[in-house]
Amino acid sequence: MANLNMDPKQMDQLLDIVSVKLGVSASKLKQELQQGKFDSALNNMKSDEAATFNKIVRSPQMLEKFMSTPQAQALYKKLTEGK
Prior knowledge:
The protein is mainly α. The protein has one domain. The protein is 71% helix and 0% strand. The protein has helices at 8-22, 26-34, 39-43, 47-57, 60-67, 70-80. α1 crosses α2 (26-34). The longest helix is centred in the first third of the chain and has 15 residues, at 8-22. The protein starts with 7 loop residues before the first helix and ends with a helix.
């Protein structure tokens, strides 16, 4: 099973990376995510990708399964290397 508990420094690093990719400030993105909103992320996705994303994040079991995949682990590692 994936360890979904990141320390605050790791979370901030990931938010910084994602915010640059989405063109949204890290603080706005963090605030939206804490409120359970994904507006900034969803606005930049294709409709079918957004639907899949919503389905995954609304189900803790699906989210854990997704984060356990080698692809998700590799992406996280790539995004956080050197930080």
